[in-house]
Amino acid sequence: xxxxxxxxxxxxxxxxxxxxxxxxxxxxxxxxxxxxxxxxxxxxxxxxxxxxxxxxxxxxxxxxxxxxxxxxxxxxxxxxxxxxxxxxxxxxxxxxxxxxxxxxxxxxxxxxxxxxxxxxxxxxxxxxxxxxxxxxxxxxxxxxxxxxxxxxxxxxxxxxxxxxxxxxxxxxxxxxxxxxxxxxxxxxxxxxxxxxxxxxxxxxxxxxxxxxxxxxxx
Length: 218
Prior knowledge:
73% helix
């Protein structure tokens, strides 16, 4: 039976490819926002790359893994550059494929959140620290993107489309499942939790509550 199972190395390589697809999607989302705001080529590339590697850079800094992964393995940075240039060259066509990009975006969010949680556990952080690092790993790049583009960070108000909450839940899943699974299995399970929550929220089945104040109140 064992000979029919994929080798761990093959699975890890496949996970890395999914990670790179997430980087590509993050870069495209940032670069597309820059294109919509009529940034020049340099601005498009900067916003795309920051979106793609920003969260991972914050994660690595917080967990003591310096220099950040994208500087130790430039494949990530080259992928971010590729996504940025693709968005600049084919922005109109890529905008039509927004649903496909959102799938890769969810995969990247899940993988980054889970890997951030694993790094935080290895660094010896407590439960809240693990969940916080997982969330920042997933959404950090998007927050930096929105601030640079003079936008309110999307994670703060899109209650019908769980994003930061899904990343935090993935971190919690990693924390709970880590004792009984290998690191690879834990990362995959955490990523799946994020992807599932994103899908459920997109169906409109889960929304975060919003507190509304009466008009004219302070």
